Sequence to fold (195 residues):
Amino acid sequence: MRVIAVLLVVVGGLAALGFARHEERVREQDQLGAIASDLAGRKVGVRCPSFVASLVDTRGEAGSVQFDDAGRPANHTDLSPQTCKLLRDLDSVDFSCIGRGDCGFTQFAAGWAAHTLAHEAFHLRGFQDEGVTECYALQNTAFVAERLGVPTQQAQNLQAWLYKRGYPNEPTEYQSPQCYDGGPLDLRPQQTRFP
Ligand SMILES: [Zn+2]
Fold:
């Protein structure tokens, strides 16, 4: 009997923990969904894998959006466990090192997660071409970072830094020859600052 009682307490505890985690994930997805919706121009969802699902995640993709045969995007994006975790902790990353020029991979990976959310949001907006999607994402990474708690100036510096350090190293299909200041994909042509 004693064993059963102990077992019940353990199971109850695990269930409570699972519920708390679930609640947290729902809240997180709602917050990310609101940001993605603003960039997509319509109501879209963001899915972060559950703890169990994250243990078996093998796709290795930072994020993805499905398109149907007619080229229409789904209404949600699936983010990797790692991207979700980095976005969750983004407000605790200090990006002031960008100004000093001594940032490391930690800051880069965290910033790249913000860029990933922007990228998937532009797929959800209807852009399937990786080069076009990426160019728009690079111009909206600061928007995402700021919404997740990064101070305005640091978010701007982050956006410029990722464009300078991350973009040139991407696969060619992600690089558009039209992605430059004043170019066809410049979302703020009246500004001289790019992205
Ligand atoms: Zn893409």
